[in-house]
Amino acid sequence: MNVFDVIGPVMIGPSSSHTAGAVRLGRVAWKALDDEPVRAEIELSGSFATTYLGHGTDKALIAGCMGMNPYDDDIRRSLEIATERGLEYSFTKVKLPDAHPNTALIRLYGKSGKMAVVEGASVGGGNILVQKLDGLSVSFTGQNDTYIVRHYDRPGVIAAVTNFMMYCGMNINNFRLSREKKGGEALMMIEVDGEATEDLLQQLNVIPNVISAMLLKAI
Fold it and tell me: Which domain holds residue 210?
């Protein structure tokens, strides 16, 4: 067990779940977007929906959507900073079925037209679990560098990607495949030990039947 799992994260705000974890969820959306955010539409479920104003969850989520860390002093002013940067935002209370009590669904839009959709939960102690990315099921914590590979569901694609990563000396510690239907688009979620590289990412993007690959650095 990591010592920070015992004493809690270094953070700004009253609650590791409602502030530190919320910042990290926002950061996942920011990293997945890979663009300057201009609009954030955030749905809150469970205790996030009922207590977000008192615990500063709104400030935390928007801070993360702008790339801030849980220990950033500017979290207190994140809503003002968002307005200054031209980032529009909205919060809606919803009931997501079978969701963890501290769940947020973030739709983040970028200046160039990109969009990232992240659904995840703050599971305690500042830790998170991302459960959906752009509508497809995933399962990662953000504690490790993670490759997200969108591809066509064709024979040999998974082997091509994982074998190449083995050749590059990357050790996979968590893998999950999600697909909407057989033969359609699919998503590989690959968490790795150590530090992932942008060079490997570029090579993944040219493997046949890979639509796109992105790297989410550990948060």
Answer: 146-216
Residue range 186-198, pLDDT digits in tens = 999 999 998 888 8
113: domain CATH number? Answer: 3.30.1330.90
* Residues 23, 17 contacting (CB under 8 angstroms): no
Mutual angle of helices 21-33 and 57-65, in 10-degree steps: 30
30 and 123 assigned to the same domain: yes
In a domain, 139, yes or no: no
**C-beta of residue 43 within 8 angstroms of C-beta of residue 80:** no
Same domain, 114 and 160: no
CA gyration radius, the chain: 17
pTM of the full structure? 0.83
Does residue 129 sit in the same domain as residue 150?
A: no
Q: What is the 3-state secondary structure (H, E, C) of 23-34?
A: HHHHHHHHHHHC
pLDDT at 3 over 80: no
Question: What is the arrangement of strands in the sheet containing 146-152, beginning at the earlier edge strand?
Answer: 172-179, 185-192, 146-152, 210-216
Alpha carbons 99 and 33: distance in angstroms, whole number: 23
